[in-house]
TrEMBL record:
<feature type="signal peptide">
    <location>
        <begin position="1"/>
        <end position="25"/>
    </location>
</feature>
<dbReference type="InterPro" id="IPR036312">
    <property type="entry name" value="Bifun_inhib/LTP/seed_sf"/>
</dbReference>
<dbReference type="GO" id="GO:0009627">
    <property type="term" value="P:systemic acquired resistance"/>
</dbReference>
<dbReference type="GO" id="GO:0005504">
    <property type="term" value="F:fatty acid binding"/>
</dbReference>
<keyword id="KW-0732">Signal</keyword>
<dbReference type="InterPro" id="IPR039265">
    <property type="entry name" value="DIR1-like"/>
</dbReference>
<feature type="domain" description="Bifunctional inhibitor/plant lipid transfer protein/seed storage helical">
    <location>
        <begin position="41"/>
        <end position="105"/>
    </location>
</feature>
<protein>
    <submittedName>
        <fullName>Lipid-transfer protein DIR1</fullName>
    </submittedName>
</protein>
<dbReference type="InterPro" id="IPR016140">
    <property type="entry name" value="Bifunc_inhib/LTP/seed_store"/>
</dbReference>
<dbReference type="Pfam" id="PF00234">
    <property type="entry name" value="Tryp_alpha_amyl"/>
</dbReference>
Amino acid sequence: MKVFSYRAFSLVWFLVFMVALVVVAQVDSTSCTSTFFSALVQLIPCRAAVAPFSPIPPSESCCNALRALGQPCLCVLVNGPPISGVDRNMASQLPEKCTTNFEPCVII
């Protein structure tokens, strides 16, 4: 009986987590036409600037990639699943550091 209840609990927890991800993506991506993965790939030039505890400022290629990506897609990344090697707070500061006119992302 314990195995069944553990499996049922795990399945319910997984489903709740997946629904939460979909809701976050729908709320934040009203204007984002990129998938989570393609948005992440587009911001590869920003990798050094968003690494945890990185003192490196965003490069010009990073800022250009950020402008091309747009604020809604940045917010999808900031509020999406955890990304190894990326500090969400530093990623949310990119628009300010790149002097773009993005509204701040609401971190969920």
